[in-house]
């Protein structure tokens, strides 16, 4: 297993070290090559993602990323020039974000119930493609456009992937989340695609919700969800709500997948570089370790993914909720349990 590792900035290197510790415990054959990308490199050299580095990344089976960013980098530079560039260049069309409420983890909800949802967010289209521009900037007549791009090809492959995941889960339920009543053009494409693909998956029951209603149900009745499929922007927003009700950002894992396997997929915790706690050894590495679980699953090692997930479940069910988190202690414990 050839793995490219981008520790990044802030707590990124701290949590990635623990992710690798756990990965090595279950897959000693992993060959990890570190890549220096992120805010630190940009400050030093002005570089974001040189083509030569991108070519090297392509030679790997997968990428593990910590987080990039610090307060000294203007907004949008790393997002557009590094994170989104990686997703677009490597065709990461599925952004997979599970949200599960583990035993022992406190949810802020009054009645959380059982929460185990898998959000399949479109990753390379929607309003994130950079299709827009600005005219008459800094004048009272400024015009700014940000066009949402939705292709039949792009929507279909994501919807199909979501159905494949749904049919393999016990509940076999899929919810499309969109805003079809207002965004009628894109909404119609998404609805028709779900309807068409659903014919191939008769065992899967299908529901639809507007995104605003969904944010409400994530809080009042999250156990109604199994697999969710949604566009890039809605998925970005609702998965933060999902993370919040299942224990917070320190536990939210994600995978950016090229389902075709042509390019390496990239796995990363949903959180950022957390400059407020960086360097103190108190970041929770659980999100990164769960991302390693997704990585193992994706690379066809589901038995190893199961071990990692079971270790996390056991650790969470036995954690003292009042004790301060020590990043490396959790990593040690998860590696020993895996
Ligand atoms: P953040 O996720 O870094 O932090 C938000 C809050 O959650 C902070 O209070 C932080 O201490 C806490 N937190 C995050 N991860 C944690 C963990 N593993 N354990 C315990 N607490 C944790 O988001 P924020 O503050 O908006 O962004 C900080 C920097 O990270 C910015 O430069 C931003 O651009 C970047 N960022 C990078 C991402 C990526 O690389 N994919 C994603 C999100 C933000
Ligand atoms: Mg986000």
TrEMBL record:
Pathway it works in: Amino-acid biosynthesis; L-leucine biosynthesis; L-leucine from 3-methyl-2-oxobutanoate: step 3/4
PROSITE patterns referenced in this protein's UniProt entry, alphabetically:
IDH_IMDH
Q: How is the cofactor bound?
A: Binds 1 Mg(2+) or Mn(2+) ion per subunit.
The listed locations are:
Cytoplasm
The domain of life is Bacteria
Membrane-crossing ranges are none
Say which enzyme class the record assigns: oxidoreductase
Could you tell me which residue ranges the Isopropylmalate dehydrogenase-like domain spans? Answer: 2-334
Report residues binding NAD(+).
272-284
**Gene Ontology BP annotations:** L-leucine biosynthetic process
Q: Which residues bind Mg(2+)?
A: 212, 236, 240
Keywords for this protein: Amino-acid biosynthesis, Branched-chain amino acid biosynthesis, Cytoplasm, Leucine biosynthesis, Magnesium, Manganese, Metal-binding, NAD, Oxidoreductase
Q: Which cofactor does it need?
A: Mn(2+); Mg(2+)
A Pfam family of the record is Iso_dh
Q: Which GO terms describe its cellular component?
A: cytoplasm
Reactions catalysed, semicolon-separated, are: (2R,3S)-3-isopropylmalate + NAD(+) = 4-methyl-2-oxopentanoate + CO2 + NADH
Residues that hold substrate according to the record: 87, 97, 121, 212
Q: Which SMART domains match?
A: Iso_dh
Q: Which GO terms describe its molecular function?
A: 3-isopropylmalate dehydrogenase activity; magnesium ion binding; NAD binding
Indicate the principal place this protein occupies in or around the cell: cytoplasm
Q: Which InterPro entries match?
A: ICDH/IPMDH, IsoCit/isopropylmalate_DH_CS, IsoPropMal-DH-like_dom, LeuB_actb
Sum up the protein's function in the record's words: Catalyzes the oxidation of 3-carboxy-2-hydroxy-4-methylpentanoate (3-isopropylmalate) to 3-carboxy-4-methyl-2-oxopentanoate. The product decarboxylates to 4-methyl-2 oxopentanoate.
The family note in this entry says: Belongs to the isocitrate and isopropylmalate dehydrogenases family. LeuB type 2 subfamily.
This protein's assembly is summarised as: Homodimer.
Q: What name has this protein been given in UniProt? A: 3-isopropylmalate dehydrogenase
- Give the species: Modestobacter italicus (strain DSM 44449 / CECT 9708 / BC 501)
């Amino acid at each position: 297993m050839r793995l490219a590792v981008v520790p990044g900035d802030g707590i990124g290197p701290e949590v990635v070290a623990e992710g690798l510790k756990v990965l090595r415990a279950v897959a000693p054959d992993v060959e990890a090559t570190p890549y220096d990308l992120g805010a630190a490199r940009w400050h030093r050299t002005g570089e974001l993602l040189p083509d030569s580095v991108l070519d090297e990344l392509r030679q790997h089976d997968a990428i593990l990323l910590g987080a990039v960013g610090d307060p000294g980098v203007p907004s949008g530079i790393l997002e557009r020039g590094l994170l989104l560039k990686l997703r677009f260049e490597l065709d990461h069309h599925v952004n997979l974000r599970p949200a599960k409420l583990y035993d022992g983890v406190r949810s802020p909800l009054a009645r959380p119930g059982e929460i185990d949802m898998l959000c399949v967010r479109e990753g390379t289209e929607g309003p994130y493609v950079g299709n827009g521009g600005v005219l008459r900037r800094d004048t009272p007549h400024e015009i700014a456009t940000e066009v949402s791009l939705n292709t039949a090809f792009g929507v279909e492959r994501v919807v199909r992937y979501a159905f494949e995941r749904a049919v393999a889960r016990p509940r076999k339920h899929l919810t499309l989340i969109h805003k079809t009543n207002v965004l009628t053009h894109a909404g119609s494409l998404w609805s028709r695609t779900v309807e068409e693909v659903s014919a191939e998956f008769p065992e899967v029951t299908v529901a639809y919700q507007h995104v605003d209603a969904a944010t409400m149900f994530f809080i009042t009745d999250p156990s109604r969800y199994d697999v969710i499929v949604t566009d890039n922007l809605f998925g970005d927003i609702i998965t933060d709500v999902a993370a919040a009700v299942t224990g917070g950002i320190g536990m939210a894992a994600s995978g950016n997948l090229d389902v075709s396997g042509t390019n390496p997929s990239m796995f990363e915790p949903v959180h950022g570089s957390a400059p407020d706690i960086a360097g103190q050894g108190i970041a929770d590495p659980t999100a990164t370790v769960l991302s390693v679980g997704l990585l193992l699953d994706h690379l066809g090692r589901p038995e190893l993914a199961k071990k990692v997930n079971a270790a996390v479940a056991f650790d969470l069910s036995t954690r003292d909720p009042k004790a301060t988190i020590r990043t490396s202690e959790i990593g040690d414990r998860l590696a020993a349990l895996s």
